[in-house]
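Newbie here. two chains, one complex. Structure please?
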Amino acid sequence: MAKVTQILNQIQSGDVAAASDLLPLVYEEMRRLARHKMKSEAAGQTLQPTALVHEAYMRLVGSEDIPQWDNRGHFFTAAAEAMRRILIENARRRHSLKRGGDRERYEIAEDDAIIDFNNAEELLDLNDALTKFADIEPEMAKLVELRYFAGLSVDESAKALGISPRTVKRNWAFARAWLGRELNVDEDR
Amino acid sequence: MTVASEKTIFFQALEIVCLEERTKFVQQACKDDAQMHAAVSALLRENDRKENPIDRPVAAAILPTMLSTGSGELTDPRFSPGAMVGPYQLMERIGEGGFGWVFVAQQQSPVQRRAALKIIKPGMESREVIARFEAERQAIALMDHPNIARVFDAGVTESAQPYFVMELVRGVPLTDFCNSNRLSIPKRLQLFVTICHAVQHAHQKGIIHRDLKPSNILVTLQDGHPLAKVIDFGVAKAIGQSLTVKTIYTRFTSMVGTPAYMSPEQAAMSTDDVDTRSDIYSLGVLLYELLTGSTPFAPDRLQTAGFDELRRIIREEEPPRPSTRLSTLNDDETRTSNVNRLGPPTTPSTAMKRDLDWIVMKALHKDRNRRYSTAGALAEDILRFLQDQPVEARPPSSWYRFTTFARRNKVAISTFSLVAIALILGTATSLWQAREAIRERDEKEVALAEAREAEVAANAARSELENFNDRLNSTTVLLAAGRANADAQRWPDAYEAYSEATQVLPRFFLVWLERGGLNAKLGRWEAAADDFAKAVEIGFPIEQAELNGVPQILLYAGRSNAYETLQQRLRQSDAEVPFAVAARGQLVGSVSSDGATELAEQMEQVLAKTVDSDANSESLTKRQRYAKIYYGVNLYIAGWAHLKAGNHEQALQRLEASNDANWFGRGIAKPLIAIAHHRMGNAEDAVHSFEESQAFLDRLLDESIERSKGSPFMPWIDWIEFLIHHREASIVVKGHTPAADPRFQRLQGFADAAIDG
């Protein structure tokens, strides 16, 4: 687990390439945590991505030497993306199962069956919209990931992205409106 | 390119508050570009829309990982008749329950006998189940009662599934028996009493059943008399978690029973906290069902309720009394339910019916302290009823009804707060747990052990959260009591309630903020500063309205660390804080002159908005009067900000206006005026103004002493700011801090006396 701390330190000291090593580690850990949660929690319980992300942080980095926020920022960016992947993979799986329609075979390996959403399609739509948005405004899309998938607050996101809370709010307003427009496209015409 | 400019126009348009102007602006900015105009308008419309998919962080619901695969489970070749399980040969299968199958089994050695063998379905931690069973085994062996089926043995199959061997009871579930034999109410009650005695016996041996329901109470006919036998004693505990609402919920589909028999404390999922009184509740449900033909909460309703709703119903809803339930059952229901099968029409008199109602409702009480303390007491009360004697269960008094109401609300309140706190606390607990888990893993490095550790950690975290929930419940009540007492000026009671809250939940910032507020209000600055410093140390959401005046107190009492921490947070957070709170909090500190200028400008805007209402003071609406009250404060804040910004002329104008306006803190600008004069070089005016400030202080102090109060009649934030300003003015104008004034000591004495009762 010291590996993550090491990578974070590398990034800190300017090694940008190290960032790409971070995501797989974070992703694996979060998947593992989610799986554990699934086994120990009951159906209908809500899985809090925020809690999961923080737990992953504690497991991977620990709190012994409380690192600085810009350091943590890289972690949370990776964690938000990992969370997004996990949830989307799951939504896709659920979605395709639903489409398969064969209820008798509606059986899911325990490892896989992590999460269900009230509406997997809604999440998949949002995911598509967000991907599109990232082409135009990559930084703002990252902000959405941080806030929506990792549950970071305005202040926390500001620190993670190294921008002011005011800018976060402005950008958030735009991202929100842009995604809303993208998703509500049929509704208002 | 288009996007860049749509973004720019969007941002610019957002700056324009007036809708009309905004529309005009967009039109102008987009000129002939209709497409752009549509795009920006859509963005703005989305911006105004209240709901947006990304407004809340995603939260994923957990679904059962193993969805029912229909009949697949019914045929497991390993457990077909003839198969051997340990020394037992399986014969016919007689049942399938939530956690397993039940077989008739032939035991070959050491004695030949038939027994019931219950195999636990895969998916449970077998070794743990057996270990828990072993722990209970001695106690179970002590049970010897004609109405309890004996548990002989427990073991693990080759496929690692735990099983239990019990006395074979050839009977039918309690409710089925009563209905098909059309037992009269007295007969039902007599049978029920024997069940109570059985449960009482087990309780005396320290065994709690935890899963009493009709299918666990089998009735046979012995010599023509019905004989009830409670089965599965001790099994529930061994299977452990299986009786919390969560697991039952996951097993809805395959469950024989429903959560209908579950006590509120079980529904609260506090597994550690289930005691004999939980069984009393389940007995109450059974009795209810025996009398009315249905459980207090309809099973189908519980089955369709969501997870949280299910818990809420069991924990909060008061079921209708049995007699009410009977009389309100509509005809349809009456025909189909077993009520019409109650046997001989033995309609009990109204008084008797009421007695039965009381007995049932006492057993079913949400607060287990108000239930029958033992199953034996329940049995005795039923016997008293059967003998026409007054029952022990009394109708609830109105006071008692009121407390029930309060309790219900408390649950609602705490559920709400819990959601808010969950993030803070959940993270904290999981951090700690996670660290523990990592340490453990490093020590052992066994994959299996790791998995178990994580599970234990999860359980510990859960129980910690449950404890927290309990503490939060009492804290919420204590805070409410504190506020109510403070409103009624019963200071000692208020102080005591707050203090107790700080002991129950010392890591909750609000308890410190609230007690600090009371201390400040009474004039106990030091105590208030201690409390506030504590809250700052714990950390809290900066947008708390309770924050008003906190920086001032910390500064005045010299708590510079806490003060700095708080200031830093106030500076960083840029909007959610109520503006006046933030402004005063910043001004009291070392705000930069740029910062002060910005504040002053914002205040001027606020003032400009309210100034119209000042025009015809004759016909002020209530709202305008409020605006006027704030107008005075706002003048003062604006003047203060101007002063800090170095804008002395404007400062003077605003501050003097604030002294003329009608508001609670009128007059507290006096020391600031002295400072303004001094800065402008008007030494004489400065000294004169300072003398006015001193006179004002004298008046406030003397008045307070006359009233034997610890603080003058003015909001404490105004009072503390005045003291801070006066001290500063003394240094600026006179060149020294004010001389120690013995009157402050007297005020302090009054303040301390206020909470001593």
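Moderator note: Chain B touches chain A through 58 residues (CB under 8 Å). DSSP finds 31 helices and ten strands in chain B. Thread marked as resolved.
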